[in-house]
Write a structure and sequence with these properties.
This protein is α/β, with parallel strands linked by helices and about 300 residues long. The chain has 2 domains: about 220 residues, P-loop containing nucleotide triphosphate hydrolases (Rossmann fold); about 80 residues, Alpha-Beta Plaits (2-Layer Sandwich). Helix content is about 35%, strand content about 30%. The strands form 3 sheets. It has a 6-stranded mixed β-sheet, sandwiched between helices. The chain has a 4-stranded antiparallel β-sheet with strand order 2-1-4-5, covered by helices on one side. Helix 3 crosses helix 4. The chain binds adenosine-5'-triphosphate. The site of adenosine-5'-triphosphate has 12 residues, from strand 2 and helix 1.
């Protein structure tokens, strides 16, 4: 197991920012670390990279405890912080050479050339960092995080503020990196998690609310599955609610459209058809709806 977190808590003065979270991440996996603003994502990632100490609980990276073996942890982990601090007046190549020296990266020249290519920095590599767009600065941060070829890559909101093209490229890169390394990245963009993660950990107000493979998370919420039906005329919602397997009814967006919220495993398609015939209605649409990861996330992290 390359990342192991057990009952981690963190207090900032009186505030409990992390309230006993535990999770694991394995090599060859992209783990999405999801949560609304202030959930505790950055706090967790800083503890994992040895930049912050926990109040209680344990965490280890590549088999090294973050408290007792922080140097070995830093050697095993590549970290892209949320506000990627770069020296703006340095040139890209110069900056990476400087970072490589600081980390005693062997054969730095070749390594830097490989990473400039890998992170798509080629066209911009001759520029000063201050002259780069946000997306290219993120690439410099990624290249830096990868310099010492770490087993574990920890990226704090690596895609925030990128345009759609840059977003697609960085996501592809993260996915590729996930094949060889353990990648943990934080985001509050649900579609991103759906697009590139194998697994998702969701935290909310310092507590873990889900830790599942993407498909399992969706399956877990299937108790809330619904069927959208549309007739040519109004139906009586109270009669529809009588159908076996229906938990409740809500109105659809267009007239004569109803959303039937179903019990887990219920299949009521035939019953809806018979209902239409018995009530002399014409059935125009019948479509099953499944919750997206976004809806699952909202359901799990709703205030209150
Ligand atoms: N240095 C600090 N001192 C006091 N409170 C802090 C400190 N850092 C974070 N917090 C608080 O701890 C909680 C968790 O913050 P954290 O930055 O880990 O959340 P996050 O999930 O990364 O949020 P975001 O998505 O907004 O970046 C927040 O309520 C925040 O205000």
């Amino acid at each position: 197991m390359s990342v192991q977190v057990d009952s981690l808590t963190k207090r900032y003065g009186k505030q409990l920012a992390l309230d006993g979270i535990s999770f694991r991440a394995e090599p060859g996996q992209v783990l999405g670390f999801l949560g609304p603003n202030g959930a505790g994502k950055t706090t967790t990632l800083k503890i994992l990279t040895g930049y912050l100490s926990q109040s209680s609980g344990t965490a280890s990276v590549a088999g090294y405890d973050v408290t007792t073996h922080s140097l070995a942890v830093r050697r095993s982990v590549g970290y892209l912080p949320e506000h990627n601090p770069l020296y703006k007046d340095m040139y890209v190549r110069e900056y990476l050479q400087f970072a490589a020296r600081a980390n005693r990266v062997p054969d730095a020249r070749t390594r830097i050339a490989t990473l400039i290519d890998r992170t798509g920095l080629g066209r911009e590599a001759h520029k000063q960092i201050g002259a780069l767009s946000k997306g290219y600065r993120q690439r410099v941060g990624l290249a830096q995080a990868l310099l010492h070829d770490p087993q574990v890559l920890i990226l704090d909101e690596p895609t925030s503020g990128l345009d759609p093209n840059q977003l697609a490229e960085i996501r592809t890169l993260i996915q590729e990196l996930g094949r060889e390394k353990t990648v943990i990245f934080s985001t509050h963009i649900m579609q991103e998690v759906q697009a590139i993660c194998d697994r998702v950990v969701i935290i909310d107000r310092g507590r873990l609310v889900a830790d599942d493979p993407i498909e399992r998370l969706q399956r877990r919420m299937r108790g809330e599955r619904s069927l959208l039906v549309e007739f040519d005329r109004s139906a009586e919602p109270a009669d529809l609610a009588q159908l076996d397997g229906v938990q409740r009814i809500s109105a659809g967006r267009s007239p004569h459209t109803y959303r039937l919220h179903l019990r887990e495993g219920a299949d009521i398609r035939a019953a809806v058809f018979h209902f239409a015939v018995a009530n002399q209605l014409t059935l125009l649409t019948m479509s099953p709806e499944e919750l997206s990861v976004e809806e699952v996330f909202r359901a799990l992290t709703a205030p209150g």
